Amino acid sequence: MMTIRSSLVISCALIALALSPATAQQVVLKGVSATPEKTLYARKFERLIEEVNTKGKGLIEIRYLGGAPKVMGVFEVGRNLKEGVVDIANLTNGFYTNVMPEADAWKLLEYSFAELRGPQKKALDYMQGLYRERMNAFLLGQQYEAHSFHIYLNKPIQKADLTGLKIRVSPVYRAMVETLGGTAVTTAPPDAYTMLERGTVDGYGWPLHGIFDFSWQKVTKYRVEPPFYRGEMSILVNLTTWNKLNDAQKKLLQDAALALEAPDADEAKAAADERKRQAEAGIQPIQLPAGEAAKWIETSRVAGWAAVLRASPQHGATLKELFTRK
Ligand code: 173
pTM of the entire structure? Predict the structure, then answer.
């Protein structure tokens, strides 16, 4: 039988528990994706939100405001994260170079996410320092590392040469397109459809995956092979918000994000399926001849690093050192 004394001990323990920070009122974070809701490059982030909200009941909730450009401009997401208007964001490097020019270097990284978490941790630590300094942010995790980029065109090319062509870009492709003689036009992804339809641009840069989300197959004739660079979508948290979280809240977010860094097991098949799906939709691959293909890749790399060094004389050389294999 429970004595008065033991029930008193239990009541005191319950009161203490209720007052401890771990059970303080749950935190609500405002979340935004820089890619439109329910598109490929928003989906993993949306899954993370569901998981955190399910497992974190009473502890933490991510209130999903939706994706850009519906809820805010694509190139505003990084700035809004920095200013704390947004607490957690899903965005790729090319969308926030206006806040952190060095983010552009992610596309040139020659290591896997797993290596960044292990033997190449100093590269990740260096970037965390820049996130802190430039945008008051913490990089929670990255996704889609096996995804690389293509130039899609409506006029055929035979060489690594974009002279006379106007290409929709995000900052990811700008240096490459310009070095190959093309004219780069920066737009938010959903704007590309009308521009292609009207012939305002002759093509665009985009990863292999995801063009069907925007119906671009209807206004695209060619996809140039080979792919170049390396994709990533980062999940960033405003650092002031992050620092206010308790250990349990941090762990829940961190574990969910790290789970997304694991490579997709069926990536090679998914890439083959996507090429087939594009072919069936009428998009022809342009296979550049070997020498031109090599020039295509080399130009992307050389022009990419030159742009990083130009944008960040202070950190560019260190990033090149940390990001490339010897
Ligand atoms: O807008 C883009 O073409 C771009 O840079 C990008 C990067 C990763 C995923 C989707 C788009």
Answer: 0.91
